[in-house]
Structure formats: structure tokens, C-alpha cells
Amino acid sequence: MPERSNPSSLSAPYRAGLGEGLVRLQVCHNCSKVQTLARYACSDCGTGDLGWTNASGLGTVYAVTSVARAPSEEFRALAPYTLVLVDLDEGARLMAHGHDGIRIGDRVQASFFEHAGQRLVRFVPIDESRDS
């Protein structure tokens, strides 16, 4: 099992991917399970033999909600905003921002935006992703 470090270093490959315009997923080298949350062990088989892979950024919207009351001061400027759960084509589910008007069942593509010094994911319907 890898040496335990602080949680921010565990997710460093994910955050580095965002900086490159990529969604990265952790993948188990033992059972091939992909997971969106960085962990020390596979959520399926429990092995610590994990690596990272670049996702296509494509998926299908599983759930949508509108956030009217932001959870922190830094997100108040965005409110109201849309959050989505997206089933990525690689098999993992990711929560991220969503384009206004997005609906359950929409095919989407990951795009990225800057807010409060962070690069964040925003899913857009595929037919609109060419314009973003």
C-alpha cells in the first residue's frame, strides 16, 4: 500500500489534470475499477495497486440540482448555480458544475472554468460544447 500522506497530495494527480484541461480517474490495476475520489485502496477489491488515467470527459447526466444558497463565501458569487452527477463513459460517477438548463439524460462533455483561484469542471451538453 502506498505511504499515507496528506489528503491534498493524494488528489494531486486529479488537480494537476484539471490544470491541463483533463478529468483524471483513479484506476485499480488489479480489478480495473475506476473511481473519482482519490483513495489509498480500491473501493471494489481493496488492493492498493492504484494508478491514474485520463477520462474522455464524456458522460450522461444522472442527476441535476440547483444551488441557491452557496455552502461558503467563495461560492456565493456563483449562486444560483447548477450541480450535476454525471455517469462518465469510463464507469465512474462525478459531481461537478453543470451548464444552465442541463437535464437528466443529456449527453455531456467536461469543460473547465476558473473560480477563486481554482480550476473547476463544468459539464455542457455535447451539442453546446463546441461553443464553450
Q: Oligomerization state of this entry?
A: single chain
The strand line-up of the biggest sheet is: 4-5-6-8-7
- Give the N-terminus to C-terminus distance in angstroms: 41 Å
User: What number is the mean pLDDT?
Assistant: 90
Strand residues, percent: 35-45%
Overall domain count: 2
Tell me the CATH topology of the largest domain: OB fold (Dihydrolipoamide Acetyltransferase, E2P)
Largest sheet: 5 strands, mixed, barrel
User: H/E element string?
Assistant: HHEEEEHEEEEH
Top-tier CATH class of the largest domain: Mainly Beta
> What is the 3D shape?
globular
Number of distinct helices: 4
Give an overview in words.
This protein is an alpha+beta fold and 132 residues long. It has two domains: 7-54, no CATH class; 58-127, OB fold (Dihydrolipoamide Acetyltransferase, E2P). The protein is 15% helix and 40% strand. It contains four helices and eight strands. The protein has helices at 7-10, 12-19, 73-76, 126-129, and strands at 24-28, 34-35, 50-54, 58-67, 81-88, 93-98, 107-115, 118-125. A five-stranded mixed beta barrel has the order 4-5-6-8-7. A hairpin with a 5-residue loop joins strand 1 and strand 2. It is globular. The chain starts with 6 loop residues before the first helix and ends with a helix.
